[in-house]
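Encoded backbone
================
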Amino acid sequence: MLDSIKSLARQYAADIVQTRRHLHAHPELSFQEHNTARFVADQLKAIGITPQEGVADTGLVALIEGNKSNSSSPSKVVGLRADMDALPIHEANNVSYKSTVEGVMHACGHDAHTASLLGVARILHVLRDQFDGTVKLVFQPGEEKAPGGASMMIREGVLENPAPVSMLGQHVAPNIPVGKIGFREGMYMASTDEIYMTVRGKGGHAAMPDNLVDPVLIASHIIVALQQIISRNRPPASPSVLSFGRFIADGVTNVIPNEVTIQGTFRCMNEEWREEGKKRMVKLAEGIAEAMGGSCEFTIVHGYPFLKNHPELTRRVRAQAVEYMGAENVVDLDLWMAGEDFAFYSQVVDSCFYRLGTRNEARGIISGVHTPTFDIDEAALETGAGLMSWLAVRELATE
């Protein structure tokens, strides 16, 4: 089976590259992936697979049934996920497949994820008489935007009828050389919550601060004080980040405004601490503002949970990757405080989210995700499709 999968991945590599280039040239933002969904559906139908369309509006689900056994007992199901949305970024690459949509770009590799999963569909459809069980292909919208397409697909039953015993997902990694794969057991990526504050006071002439309630000063105290929640209240073994990227005080040199708006993000890897930390932030911010004569409207947009890779599943999948790639091409990952809505699956079913190396320094392919010059070494697509096919059939064969 291993040799057959590698051979088919090699045979379909050029087609997978062309699929990725089409998707890259025609990106669509989160929950607007209508053309992408139609394209994916057409590709699946051309293979001989009829997908369920319109899941969470622009998502698709497809099943590949193994035919090796004629047993009437329920078959094991493994889910494979790819996300399809792009980002509001203007592409700066000068390539033949450059985005044709002004201000929209596949800057996070979701085009590669979708193309790879379509490659998996090709490979496993050909080999369906050589394995038992069911592979559930999940083409998901809206990974980049809350509430996350994963949460919506779960609500619409993507983890039911049939229910997968495990979910696998892969993500491009521009910090890992092409041809290598990365894994991490346990907690891997952070929960993501958005923070919005409006600090109100009484503005006026900057030369007469005694007649004012300075919201700039209040907001500054709040931002500094909130960091003590991370340093003094956080459980030491629970990684957390609190960052503020937007602070607007729309005054001038001699005018203090009536209000200040602030935006930031809170990230951690412990759901109990996550809720406790947010309660403490609200209480502290409101208390400081009141003590200084102002007020603080503190809003938290609840985002993705933290992503946890099931230890036993991840150890097993890592060993299967070594079988496919060789031990020298399988690396260990560090914690990553970025967020990913695959975390919703990981909170419900045994899951493993791993990284697909796409970096090629010799060719200048070194830019990080979410940047205008992000690209991948497309040799990774053969690896992505072949390895995921192998992991799926090996998982189906695991007792």
Observations:
- The chain has two domains: 2-188+305-396, 193-301.
